[in-house]
Amino acid sequence: TYKTEAHNNLNVQHNRQSKTPKIPSPFWVFLFHIKFLFLFLKKPTNHSLPYLHQKPTSSSSSSSSSSSTSTLIFDLMATSQQVEPEKHVYSVWAVPPDDVAARLRKLMDSLGSEFGGPKFDPHITVVGAVSLTPEDAVEKFRSACEGRKAYTATVDRVATGTFFYQCVFLLIHPTTEVVETSAHCCGHFGYKNSTPYMPHLSLLYADLTEDEKKKAQERASILDESINSLSFQVNRLALYKTDTKDTTLESWEKISECFLSPN
């Protein structure tokens, strides 16, 4: 009897143990995670973000569903990691004719050798520094030049400013043609002046004291006695890359140029 009862007790314990759910071994847990990671990192083939707006067609297998999910995740990750197009600083200049430019460059070189400062091409700023991608800059420039006509620029006097890029310059009469050309081009570039437009042609870029500026101003009138009465036809506009942080101007370069229609 004792053996029979012990035997029955062992059977009961065995039945209870067989009904207890088995805990997965660490190996199978690890294998499951590996499979999930493989599905997650599976590289997409011909899917794209528009898939987000597609309706499911019919019931599909779990493997295709997992693949689609991983594809969407990959697309979203790729979209979020897209690099912004590189931008540069650009300006639009009104360029004087070659003979006038040669005269101005001679004056500018003389002032530069005496007071210092980098060399740059003679110009009247039409659109100030604006940050754009190269493609946008060229497209906006060409659009702004369409239908524009040549106009006259006349010097008022030699003047001085308050910062590096307006150290000594030729102040240009703000005629209707001069002001309207700037307003037209600024509109195409989406550029807004923080101060009223002051047309000018810089002669010297430098950080000088007020006394040095006054001396440079006087020297300009001595080096070219008739500079205060200079008048010339503007028949070209040019697009320049002009990083204003680069005071050496070594990175400045002409990107494009357009000829204005004759009057």
UniProtKB/TrEMBL annotation:
<dbReference type="GO" id="GO:0009187">
    <property type="term" value="P:cyclic nucleotide metabolic process"/>
</dbReference>
<dbReference type="InterPro" id="IPR012386">
    <property type="entry name" value="Cyclic-nucl_3Pdiesterase"/>
</dbReference>
<protein>
    <recommendedName>
        <fullName>RNA ligase/cyclic nucleotide phosphodiesterase family protein</fullName>
    </recommendedName>
</protein>
<dbReference type="Pfam" id="PF13563">
    <property type="entry name" value="2_5_RNA_ligase2"/>
</dbReference>
<dbReference type="InterPro" id="IPR009097">
    <property type="entry name" value="Cyclic_Pdiesterase"/>
</dbReference>
<dbReference type="GO" id="GO:0004113">
    <property type="term" value="F:2',3'-cyclic-nucleotide 3'-phosphodiesterase activity"/>
</dbReference>
